[in-house]
Design a protein that fits this description.
Blueprint (H helix, E strand, L loop, with lengths): L1 H17 L1 H7 L7 E6 L6 H5 L6 E6 L13 H12 L4 E7 L3 H7 L8 H6 L4 H11 L5 H16 L3 H8 L4 E7 L6 E4 L5 E4 L2
Parallel strand pairs: 1-2, 1-3, 3-4
Antiparallel strand pairs: 4-5, 5-6
């Protein structure tokens, strides 16, 4: 906490004054262009990766960048998606996986999750990702392949959300799948078939 408090002081003394006009505008307006859904992993920082300023990204972070398919009932991920699309009117959604993902590693290497039942239950949202990867590989999925298949599977889950479906039908929303490589900083955009299409930048 000492480091965090020191960081707050640096922000207040140096960062905030340099961007005071920006923050004054943001106090009365919240109009991000993009919903960025990424893993909760501390090594993945959406604003840093994309060079975004405050107010430009609406961010949802979940373990394994997993997105439950739409179902009625209270759900924080669903509420965040609906707010970004139906209220804020974002024009793009990025689902971003990353190298060395702990969630995907646990699935690929069949880690024993009996002592963490909430994690085990949550990772069931990646069952389709694991099945597709295993089918392609003919055996146990490799982590990198699973990361890619998982991004595509979560895009498919995202498309089941009514707010997303309506915006896409009206040509107001585009979905993107990215994979961020931690050691190199590379970002790949995935093609629909699941193969790397091009650098995102």
């Amino acid at each position: 906490m000492h480091d965090l408090a020191a960081g707050v002081r640096r922000f207040q003394q140096h960062v905030f004054p340099a961007k005071a006009e920006l923050f004054a505008g943001l106090a009365a307006s919240h109009r991000p262009d993009t919903l960025f859904i990424s893993c909760s992993d501390a090594r993945v920082v959406p604003e840093l990766i994309t060079g975004s300023e405050p107010g430009e990204l609406f961010v949802i972070r979940t373990a394994g960048n997993l997105i439950p398919p739409y179902a009625p009932g209270p759900d924080g991920v669903t509420a965040g998606i609906e707010y970004a699309v139906a209220v804020l009117g974002v024009s793009d959604i990025v689902v971003c996986g990353h190298s060395a993902c702990g969630a995907m590693t646990a699935l690929a290497e069949h880690h024993d999750l009996t002592s963490t039942p909430a994690i085990a239950d949550w990772l069931r949202h990646a069952d389709a990702s694991r099945a597709r990867t295993t089918a392609d590989a003919g055996g146990a999925p490799a982590v990198d392949a699973l990361v890619r298949h998982n991004v595509l599977a979560q895009l498919a889950n995202l498309a089941t959300h009514p707010s997303v479906a309506r915006a896409r039908a009206a040509n107001r929303l585009t979905l993107h799948g990215w994979v961020y490589d931690i050691p190199t900083g590379a970002v790949e955009e995935l093609a629909p078939a699941g193969h790397p299409a091009s650098p995102a930048a």
